[in-house]
Amino acid sequence: MTAFDLGIGLGAIILGWISEQTGYPLLFAIASVSVVVSLVIFALFVKRLLRTDAVLVSAAGTPVERAE
To answer: Entry's InterPro entries (predicted)?
Structure first.
């Protein structure tokens, strides 16, 4: 099971429960916080990996030159 699938499954259950208990304003506030946290993680970790000069590998397993 991937993190994406797990997020969809648990997110619907957890945020549905939150909306029942507190209402939609807090539901959307919590959802927006999760988006901001995801953007921060992307900015700190993934973008740095994309900027490095690591060798790219094709699906066949052969090295691919990075296009500039």
So the answer is: MFS_trans_sf (IPR036259)
Number of other residues whose CB lies within 10 A of the CB of residue 53: 6
Which residues lie closer than 8 Å to 30 by C-beta, 6 or more apart?
15, 18
Q: Is the pTM of this model over 0.70?
A: no
Q: Is 62 left (phi over 0), alpha (psi -120 to 50) or beta?
A: beta
> Which domain covers residue 11, as residue numbers?
3-64
Query: Among candidates 29, 32, 33, 27, which has minimal Cα distance to 14?
Result: 27
Total structural domains within the chain: 1
